[in-house]
Known about the structure:
CATH architecture of the largest domain: Alpha-Beta Barrel
Shape: globular
Order of helices and strands: HHHHHHHHHEEHEHEHHEHEHEHEEEEE
Number of strands: 12
Structural class: alpha/beta
Distance between the termini: 71 Å
Low-confidence stretches: 1-61
Bound molecules: iron/sulfur cluster
Mean pLDDT: 86
CATH class of the largest domain: Alpha Beta
Radius of gyration: 23 Å
Amino acid sequence: MTAHTIFDASRRKQDRTSLTESAAGLTESAAGGSLRKSQRGSAALLGPMPAVISTASPTALKRPNRFPIGAEARDFMRRFYPDAAPEDWNDWRWQSRHRIRTLPELERIFTLSEDERAAASRHTGSLPVGITPFYASRMGLDDPMEPLRRTHIMVGDEFLRGPGEEDDPLGEDHDMPVPGLVHRYPDRVLFLTTGFCATYCRYCTRSRMVGNAGGEYHFSTHEWEKALDYIEAHTEIRDVLLSGGDPLSIGDDKLDYLLGRLRRIKHVEFVRIGTKIPVVLPQRVTRDLVRVLKKHHPLWMSLHFTHPAEFSPEVTEATARLADAGIPLGSQTVLLKGVNDDAAVMRTLMHGLLQRRVRPYYLYQCDPITGSGHFRTTVDKGVEIIRSLRGHTTGYAVPTFVVDAPGGGGKIPVNPDYVVGRDGDALVLTNYEGGRYRYVDPEGALGRDRNAGLADAAE
Ligand code: SF4
């Protein structure tokens, strides 16, 4: 059997068991269609949408998937899901099916502010509310300002468009040679595999396209083939980043197929997966999923963390399983006003990541997505946070702070400046404590443009 026929058989099986959810006011589908940017309501023209979330593999059904349940989660489960057994709670499909997606569901769990209630009533289209029961158990139920809750329940500010904000600020749509594949840098591509996420972050860079299968963008495993053909034909592509949506929401069989196809392309040296699922739906990191991932090394993973409140026994178990599978783990964090724009919070987050074998990788300035102004800090704030980390803690705990340049300029690192100027043959630098140091560098040009008046520079 060829790879294609294996995939087709798997797709037929998954289509029969697709998980499609809808609810008044806040609707989406766990299934995908074509990722092609098309007219609203044109999903029917594109044919039936194949499932993204699969059913359990026969192996998974036979063997219980043991997973810890932390104290907060256990209390939450007893209070809000009294009929659920621990096995239900630890089943990622149960968690997906029971995501909080409607205003009545939100009101059953949270004490909503007037602002949240009005925003949830008003919202339509992409980026619906979607919160797994597990992730909700980490949130402040009565406090609208609690950090995790702020990032997942909409407020009225989301309907405002601030200066410089756009629906596609990074200009990704202009760099798509085929639907779902962003080819901006010569040697690497961003492969948007699905429009489904386990939870929807209110500041999402792809808020225009996630969580709305019937909207402007559609995602399809059928479209994967066009993207794979493109990658195959472009021998300069050595690095493929799978993103979306969340690639770990794709069922094991399909993910296995996709990774296998990519690994068979000789010039693709390695594959990365960008995901938030180990944080918001850690139960998805089953032994079977890990077995699939392990087959396709070298495979790297970027985990989207926001705040230390996300650390739990469940997340520790998920990251341990991934790290034990030999997958190098990095983190991505968006700097968010009132959520994590605090040096102490960020340090706790970075230290917690290292303890869980996740290397802090990127700290992002919040992209100018339409309706994200209430989350955006100044760029200075990011520099201040990096300055508070560099030299004050383990170097591994310091991420790279970047601004993703609007219009497709790519990630631009913005760092605290430690160059003071020059003193004769020496470059004068300042360290994390503000001390000045001369480094003999007679041929160097760095710092020559600064008239720092450095005659009294320290030795
Ligand atoms: S998990 Fe990622 S893709 Fe999904 S809503 Fe959050 S930021 Fe967007």
